[in-house]
Amino acid sequence: PEGKGKRYDPTVETSESRQILVQTIEAGSPADGVLKVGDVILGANGTGAEPVAFTSDARLAFGQVIGDAEARNPGLLKMSVWRAGKTMVLAMTLRTMGAYSATAPYNCPKSAKILEEGLDYIMANEDAGFVGLSTLALLAGNDPKNPKNAARQKKAQDYAYAQCLAQNLIDYIKLGNVETMGPRIAPDCAVRVLPQDQGSQSTAKY
Question: Can you give 118-175 as a three-state secondary structure string?
């Protein structure tokens, strides 16, 4: 089985996975020049010791190993990799980010750094990913003390407006067709705006 990353999806079940198939490699990433598409990661270790085979959910275990490596300087991550019929040990160096605090994501310098860099990426890349999640991330990072905050909240507002339902769909829902409309109402939208007089629905203002 494959352990897939890149995005959170509660419908993806990886608890039985014990290997990770490399499907893509981002240019300039720590894996660039180390791993190859088609490699299978069998285990890893972020403490500087030799890699250990995954014995539980490979996706989660690999995330924990990455955290171990990022807490060290240098952030050496060793992997046991199957490639074209041979098993080998490969290593890549991750950026030192520090360790998560016991209260993470609250009062955690590493969490704050990740959020800040993530928001910078969203602002610099229109194709940063699922726009609904980008909107929520920008709103979650609302910090009036941050000099970048005004631009970020304006971007969140623009994203939110772009996700509002068209008037013809709102009219259709008002006729009582909410359930039958179902999948036709862009199910990936994060914002639903209905007139305030529609029962428990309230008008969203930005």
Answer: HHHHHHHCCCCCCHHHHHHHHHHCCCCCCCCHHHHHHHHHHHHHHCCCCHHHHHHHHC
